[in-house]
Amino acid sequence: MPEYGRNVQKMIQQAVSIEDREKRTTIAKAIVNIMASMNPKVKESGDYKHKLWDHLIIISGFNLDVDSPYPYPDRNVLEAKPQKLSYKKEPMRFRHYGRNVERIIAKAITLPEGEEKEALIEIIANHLKKSYLNWNRDSVNDELIYKHFEELSGGELKLDEGFRLHETSDILGRNRRKKFVNKRDNNTRNRNRRSKN
């Protein structure tokens, strides 16, 4: 644990070598107080003293035999390898839209008919076009987006007859404006910092 430094580690090694248990416990308490002062962020956690005693035992390599006010941390739990994550093995139909879009569409299918569902369907369709443009800025065909939307929903979600997707130039124009505004704000902040110095 590098946050406590080499000197704390040397103190702990010295404490391990002391034969008298009472003296060893007294020194361990002093070391815990030093650790608390060296790493004040640890005090922000709820039971920071317990955490410090655990760190003391871990740094000693579980060799420090003292009368700790807390139970010793379980070495087997600390050294155990994490379990492997189970990833979904089912393939995504369209990787450029992502799995979350598939989940949102599945949720939209379960919603009762009404204005809320219609609004969500339109938002999803426009999001598909926006996501498609992230991967292919040269060309996007609205008919292709409609086809993908129908495939992703299994034909269960229908767009209104008069519905039109946002224009490509509008979507790309918004992104350019955001970048321009962010760049302008960053330049202003940098000028303000330089003028303060």
Describe what you observe in this structure.
The chain is elongated. The protein starts with a helix and ends with a helix. 14% of the residues are buried. It has helices at residues 5-17, 21-38, 48-59, 75-79, 99-110, 115-135, 142-152, 168-196. It has 2 domains: 2-79, no CATH class; 99-166, no CATH class. The chain has 197 residues and is mainly alpha-helical.
H/I helix tally: 8
Tally of domains = 2
Estimated share of beta-strand residues: under 5%
| Helical/strand content category | mainly alpha
What's the gyration radius in Å?
30 Å
> Average pLDDT value?
82
The unreliable regions are: none
Instruction: Please count the beta strands (DSSP E, at least 2 residues each).
Output: 0
Calculate the terminal CA-CA distance, rounded to whole Å: 37 Å
Helix content: 55-70%
Main β sheet profile: none
* Series of H and E elements: HHHHHHHH
Give the overall form.
elongated
